[in-house]
Amino acid sequence: MKKRGGSNLRLKLSPDSEISFAKFLTDSGTFKDGDLLVGRNGLRIVPQDGQEEPPLVKPSDNQLTLADVDTIKVIGKGNGGIVQLVRHKWTGQFFALKVIQMNIQDSVRKQIAQELKINQSSQCPYVVVCYHSFYDNGAISIVLEYMDGGSLADFLKKVKSIPETYLSAISKQVLKGLIYLHHDKHIIHRDLKPSNILINHGGEVKITDFGVSAILTSTIGQRDTFVGTYNYMSPERISGETYDYKSDIWSLGLLLLECATGCFPYSPPELGDGWINFYELLEAIVEQPQPSASSEQFSPEFCSFISACATKDPNDRKSAQELLKHPFVSMYEDLDVDLASYFTSAGSPLATF
After folding, report:
1. What pTM does this model have?
2. Is 306 exposed, middle or buried (0-12, 13-18, 19+ CB in 10 A)?
3. pLDDT averaged over 10-residue windows placed end to end, the chain, 353 residues
4. Are 203 and 338 in contact (CB under 8 A)?
5. What is the set of active-site residues?
6. Are 97 and 142 in contact (CB under 8 A)?
């Protein structure tokens, strides 16, 4: 079956980065948000003049529909819905199907609309592909590329920690994905964490989950909203300050340090069973010294890379473009690191049926 990704879609984004949410259901069963129209036959765009364009993919025997896939199992939950592993009946190809029920808060609906627009317009080998979107029976269904290795969070549960050689290769792909999001699409991910970095047995590493991302129209690329995962949130966001793309770089530093050590960089107080609440954790991120990699355990290059990411002042943080040139990213290239074999040898449970 021919893949249909973002390259087929012509999205006309509003000049205002905030999407005005206007949801309605027509007699034919359609979900509408601004110029985005999602129905049983897939996604369409309604131009500014109100005249609906024809289907972006003409109906044919090869068109992907929900009736054409069989559900294998649930592989993820959260964010108002579930993620299922599905298989195309005629080709045997696997996809990840994100199903989001629409009986949710308006703020979450806005995030879903943003996710659809961003995913459908993304064309990058380091970002998970979104093939199609549907609205049916009160739910939005998004057909995504299936990454058979699961997430870095899944992988960490198996291997406990990831050696530097592999982290270098992983970081290179993640940085290329961030360069695409930050530079080409003007997007702050805002929820970068191990569970949002997916891997496959071909050795590919891709960024996913733009449910809390936002398209930026400001030339500075800054946002002052408070959305995302608390653990990996940058100090400037926690403090309520204006933040930009560098906020994702902080998150990258924390997730790579967690992958290297097997532990989240901010440990709870020694007395007690852990953090009392997330406010205590946030205070620690703002008030405590920035996390660092141990020079006794890791190379100077890795320690330097983490310091360049997880510095508390965003002005001192490196950009994704700058970090791609960091010695740590290239120091193991002569070893011909085989991520495909490494990911496969761990045997992710998501890859077996």
Report:
1. 0.79
2. buried
3. 34 29 38 62 59 43 74 80 89 88 67 70 86 79 90 93 97 97 89 93 90 39 59 91 94 97 83 68 90 96 98 96 97 93 77 51
4. yes
5. 191
6. yes
